Amino acid sequence: MDKKNKNVQINLNPAHTPVLYTDTIFMNVNDDGVTLDMGQKVGKGEQITIITRVGMSRDHAKKFVKKLSELLALSEKSPKNASTN
């Protein structure tokens, strides 16, 4: 079966899976993979609190960047909620 036509069921409990807003991101890449430290600026100073860390393989990161670019382009054409998997 083609991966694009595969039905995927996503289980999400909003009470236990909050949306974390980030306005700062630190990206680290090496031969083994990619780490994203996502943070929020706190107050008026230069203090940043890391709210989550995400790690992935380099191959997965390339797929992520491609899909994110596609989603952003789609949302510019139709600014309502856009999603892709």
Using brief descriptors, characterize the structure shown.
single chain; 85 residues; alpha+beta; three-stranded antiparallel sheet; 1 helix; 3 strands; globular
What does this structure look like?
The protein has one helix spanning 58-77; strands at residues 24-30, 33-42, 47-56. The protein has 85 residues and is of the alpha+beta class. The chain has a three-stranded antiparallel sheet with strand order 1-2-3. Strand 1 (24-30) and strand 2 form a beta hairpin. The radius of gyration is 16 Å and the shape is globular. The two termini are 16 Å apart. The mean pLDDT is 89.
Compute the number of strand runs. Answer: 3
The computed structural class is alpha+beta
Q: Mind telling me the C-alpha Rg?
A: 16 Å
Q: Which consecutive residue ranges, at least 5 long each, have pLDDT under 50?
A: none
Instruction: Determine the N-to-C terminus distance.
Output: 16 Å
Mean pLDDT: 89
What is the overall shape? globular
Count, helices = 1
Outline the fold blueprint.
Blueprint: E1 24-30, E2 33-42, E3 47-56, H1 58-77
Antiparallel strand pairs: 1-2, 2-3
Q: TL;DR of this structure?
A:
This protein is 24% helix and 32% strand.
